Amino acid sequence: xxxxxxxxxxxxxxxxxxxxxxxxxxxxxxxxxxxxxxxxxxxxxxxxxxxxxxxxxxxxxxxxxxxxxxxxxxxxxxxxxxxxxxxxxxxxxxxxxxxxxxxxxxxxxxxxxxxxxxxxxxxxxxxxxxxxxxxxxxxxxxxxxxxxxxxxxxxxxxxxxxxxxxxxxxxxxxxxxxxxxxxxxxxxxxxxxxxxxxxxxxxxxxxxxxxxxxxxxxxxxxxxxxxxxxxxxxxxxxxxxxxxxxxxxxxxxxxxxxxxxxxxxxxxxxxxxxxxxxxxxxxxxxxxxxxxx
Length: 293
Known about the structure:
Elements: H1 9-18, H2 20-26, H3 38-50, H4 52-66, E1 74-83, E2 91-93, E3 121-123, E4 130-132, E5 141-151, E6 157-164, H5 169-179, E7 187-191, H6 198-206, E8 209-213, H7 226-229, H8 232-240, H9 244-253, H10 265-291
Parallel strand pairs: 1-7, 7-8
Antiparallel strand pairs: 1-5, 2-3, 4-5, 5-6
Helix pairs in contact: 1-2, 4-10
């Protein structure tokens, strides 16, 4: 479903009914009857309990390590917004009954003059989604935040993670992902200007990681000074960190993950991990073809 950009499980079953490639992949003959799309819903709870997505991602990462494709010293962190499967009309005041006005499934709602905050409002469709905007002048959306830790040698994902969308989620997730890297050898961690805070830089240094984040000098002093930027490795990290945008671009277009089709952090995070695993598979295939004679 991820590799071929099939947007729903119903369409996947429809294609499986007539697509011989898909039938061959799952071991069905030309005359075998395909299963119902509800099979996915029934099995998903079992998959979530067994953490199958994380185990699958881990096995793929082991293959990449055995092939010598992973760096254990140089990394990049970044985050992106994943639009939730909920409309802004569902974002209503907490502990307040829904408005009685309007008819039909899609009534008219007037938000003008209403101050809507995550502290006072929540989506009735997906309560775990949060109203967030990426920057000034951007529209606010109900969304989650996806994060990746990328190794800089070949641009493979080391750790995927999905969290609620908050102003500090990127830095908090980055600290957790860097701390989970095996060993306590010296690392470099690249990032964009959003990571240029004194707290995050100090946290990375406490983890024996050199912060190669972009300097943010818009009206304040950067936490990165000449002791870091004078080294050639800093410029290299700044150049290679942009590969992480290729990951998010693939996941949102080919992986069809610009807007999630599930609700709740657990289910959306499960699908985010599977999409990251699919990206690594495609990337490893391309790398293997590139180096083969």
